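Service request form, structural biology core

Requester: graduate student, group of Dr. S.
Request type: structure prediction, single chain
Budget code: on file
Notes: please return the result as structure tokens.

Sequence provided:
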Amino acid sequence: MKKWLLLLSLLTYITGATQHFYLFAGTYTNNGSKGIYVYDFDADNGTVRLLSHTDSAENPSYLCVSQDGNFLYAVNEVDIEQSGKVSAYHFDRRSSKLQFINQQRTGGAHPCHISVTGDGKTVFVANYSGGNIAAFPVGDNGALMPAVQLIQHTGKGADPVRQTQAHVHGVSLSPDEKYLLTPDLGTDKIHVYRYDRGSSKLEAGAKQGFIESAPGSGPRQLCFSANGKFVYVVEELSGMLTAYSFQRGVLKKLQSYTGHQPGAGNNHGSADVQMSPDGAFLYMSNRGEENTLAIFKVDQKTGLLTPAGIRSTEGNHPRNMLIDPTGRYLLVGNMKSNEVVVFRREMGTGQLQVSGRFSIPSPSCLQMIPR
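Core staff response, request fulfilled:
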């Protein structure tokens, strides 16, 4: 899938052909939101057009879409009897609407991140307050089966307020899908699990069970390089972006960089990290008092980073962002200012210029697939 997206990016850049994509936006629903919104995104000019939305989804704060584009899965970030929920939808391309299939309990409160395997057979959910990971087999019709596994993390970190217990914040598959990496904000660890396709379960058979980040750093989200050799982790509490090499399930730290201007306060709230389709640039979002995007140039041979600038997100609380498959645009969901800002990317330098914006209540996650 990632190789296909890279090829699409190169072809689009060379030919200048117009490309349209489906843009899905997850939200928090305590601010008048309808749940999950579906848009048409025109990558020729960076404009969006609303196509549909759900009516009853509760806090679908993070989304993932199956590789074939037929199914969408959303966490419902709630706490009902110490469990959140996860929902499955069929995406009807003819009507551009999401059709609810079913829902399962996640086994832990406030699920915050979700991923689906390339074959569409397994969905993983990270429960933030529950401090655990749930694995769900998927039926042929896209329906979620009850969880076959619940892995509980334990421990705490150095921060007496934010790290009193485990807080799993991500479930990211390696490009070859042999491993699942889970940053735990509460314990300052990045766990490495081996994924067994036959059972839809995770195994502790990885050579390295976990790697520790700096005390009080709060690892939150990560992304892989396209070749799977490098991993980049954004740390919410420290405001650092840390690069690791990754080989056969083993992480080794390469370097860390701050994503902030000199004199920035301690309330970083660093949230997301995304890589451009050509692998040349990384972007890191910061909430807190700053509301900025940090830009890094990537040496694709060594995995090392070079700071390339910091700019405003032109809004408040950039929880999630997305680079479209052509690489022309970066979209930022500014949750507290109720809008998505569209930036046009300069391919050679990675720099960003505002192209447009559109209103949406409390945006928290953006996903995109070809039309």
